Amino acid sequence: MKRRTKQFIYGGSYLSVILIIFASVFAIVHEPVLSCFDGKLNQNEEEVDCGGVCASCALKTVRPIQLGTPETVIISAGSGSASQLLTVVELRNPNNNFSAGPITYELGIFTQGGELIDVITRTTILYASEVRYEIQPVSITGATGVTVLATTTATQWLEVEKLARPNSQIRSQREEYSPDQRTLTVTGIYKNTNTFSVREVELHALIRDTGGSLAGVGKTLIRDLAPDEERAFQIVLPLAVTIAPEDLASPIISTAIRRL
Predict the structure, then answer these.
(1) CATH number at residue 189
(2) Which residues are listed as membrane-spanning (predicted)?
(3) How far apart are CA 71 and CA 120, in angstroms?
């Protein structure tokens, strides 16, 4: 075989090998990357872009956290002096299978003229199907009324198996009205009925008048509860200056529980 022919054959072989290597590298580099957002049923997904290595398909039907219209009550007022404004907002998780852990929401405090006074940012956990009242104090000067707007800014969803609501029990609840202090004091026994310790429990209490208007709110904090431990609690609810004791309904207590 002539030398030129051999060179042609060897050169063609080398070129073929180089082309094969180049084609393989090109295919690897440009191969579509599998993801949970490619609109295709791949990987080990149960449905398109969900299940398996992707987020649960149940998240497609998850409903957003519901924030009730914030209510306010002014418990003291005076020209040029600080008035104690207490605001309460209802948080409701309408999902049975998912807890919101955590959820961040904001309370925007505005004057009746629309001027922003303050913004309160709060982060909490809202368990599956939980309804809770969150209470926040706001310091204002010489104001007779404000508008409060509540919005959620972030929510992380977890399956209820991963973030189930801890159990608890309230017993021996009593109420005592103080006409001199214009307060309602709620006392009772709180029990951690779980097999694990609880880092802290916020007890939120609110009371309405017989017409349904907010009359007073208050809260207290219990820390470091061992399994099956009981602890006495006391919540003092300052009352609106316009309310009469005979017009008060029964107080409502909700809990915000944080595990260790």
Answers:
(1) 2.60.40.10
(2) 7-29
(3) 15
CB 105 within 8 A of CB 64: no
Spatial contact of 243 and 215, defined as CB atoms under 8 Å apart: yes
Give residue-wise pLDDT tens across range 173-220. 999 988 877 889 999 999 999 999 999 999 999 999 888 888 888 999
Contact between 189 and 248 (Cβ < 8 Å): no
**CB distance 74 to 138 below 8 Å:** no
Closest by CA to 203, choosing from 183, 173, 181, 179, is 173
Residues 54 and 70 in one domain: no
CB count, 10 Å around CB of 130? Answer: 19
Q: Per DSSP, what are the bridge partners of residue 163?
A: none
Domain that holds residue 184: 168-259
* DSSP secondary structure letter of residue 199: E
Which token pair is 132? 């809770």
CA distance 252 to 217: 9
The answer to whether 87 and 138 have CB atoms below 8 angstroms apart is yes
List pLDDT tens digits, range 96-137: 999 997 888 888 888 778 888 888 888 888 999 999 998 887
Type of residue found at 25: V
Regarding whether 251 and 180 lie in a shared domain, the answer is yes
Picking from 201, 216, 220, 211, the residue whose alpha carbon sits closest to that of residue 251 is: 216
Report pTM: 0.72
Helix then strand count (H, E) for the chain reads 1, 13
